[in-house]
Amino acid sequence: MSDTFAVKVARKTCEADGICSYELVSADGTPLPPFTAGAHIDVHVGDGIVRQYSLCNAPHETHRYLIGVLREPASRGGSSAMHDRIAEGAEFQVSMPRNHFGLADGPHHSVLFAGGIGITPLLAMAEHLHARGLPFTLHYSVRSAARAAFRQRLEATPFASCVRLHIDEEGTRLDVAAALPDCPPGTHLYVCGPAGYIDHVLATARMLGWSDDRLHREYFGAAPVANEEGERAFDVRVASTGCTYTVPPGRTVVQVLADHGVDVPVSCEQGVCGTCLTRVLDGVPEHRDLYQTEEEQAANDQFTPCCSRAKSALLVLDL
């Protein structure tokens, strides 16, 4: 089976200010590959642009995929292309669904925290948990009512009583410390949204004694890392060829390798998705990704060449 297949936009809907949803169906009318709650697909927008979007419809549906796309103010071409160029009837390639943010096994209680467009994977989780009769609470935080995507869907759903909408401008801002003590023992926490929102939710949970094995997160975007004054160049060596290349300040490993015909698959280019994760055979990376856990980063045996750099003078890569 091919890694990608063609889909068609059956419906494009404005869900909130700056957010559109896209209902995708198979271009040839066949059932779509199955997916699990929390999964995403790579969308090949065109012109070499590939972006990842979470599936936010019920996982039991095989006739459609539903994604939500926020127009990013500093778009690198992906979200602006989706909003401006992709209309109903458009066809493009997507990847098979993949899941780095799946629900933990077992009949435990779940508490879901969504910040802004981070609601998308948690919608699929809520649909799955409700269908299985498993208890959960969904906290959805937005700055304004106009930014609350999928609000009508959530208010009309059979699990509406499990949803807590927090709107900053209306004075109902989320109080994580107040929400967590109500959770039964053994509850698992799932959070998705901007990095600052995720860090706040996780830090509060840890302060209240939650263990890391019950905390699950997915970042939608990394804060840009400015080139620090004095950032130095370093070398990368491709193990299979022995060729060594210099990565100067202001350029990424992926960019330098591409200049020399070494292709590394990338998607988000922000260290969020893990698509480019590469094994390190020698040297010490300077990790700038949000994909790996702190323990995985400490092992220093893999890194994300789309954004991370090196602490050592040389990195030897398993390429």
From TrEMBL:
InterPro entries: 2Fe-2S_ferredoxin-like_sf (IPR036010), 2Fe-2S_ferredoxin-type (IPR001041), 2Fe2S_fd_BS (IPR006058), Beta-grasp_dom_sf (IPR012675), DmmA-like_N (IPR054582), FAD-bd_FR_type (IPR017927), FNR_nucleotide-bd (IPR039261), MRET (IPR050415)
Matching SUPFAM superfamilies: 2Fe-2S ferredoxin-like, Ferredoxin reductase-like, C-terminal NADP-linked domain, Riboflavin synthase domain-like
2Fe-2S ferredoxin-type domain mapped to chain residues: 234-319
Cofactor: FMN
Pfam families: DmmA-like_N, Fer2
GO molecular function, a single term: metal ion binding
Domain FAD-binding FR-type: 2-104
Alphabetic keyword roster: 2Fe-2S, Flavoprotein, FMN, Iron, Iron-sulfur, Metal-binding, Oxidoreductase
Annotated signal sequence range: none
Protein name: 2Fe-2S iron-sulfur cluster binding domain-containing protein
Biological source species: Pseudoduganella dura
Lineage, uppermost ranks: Bacteria, Pseudomonadati, Pseudomonadota, Betaproteobacteria, Burkholderiales
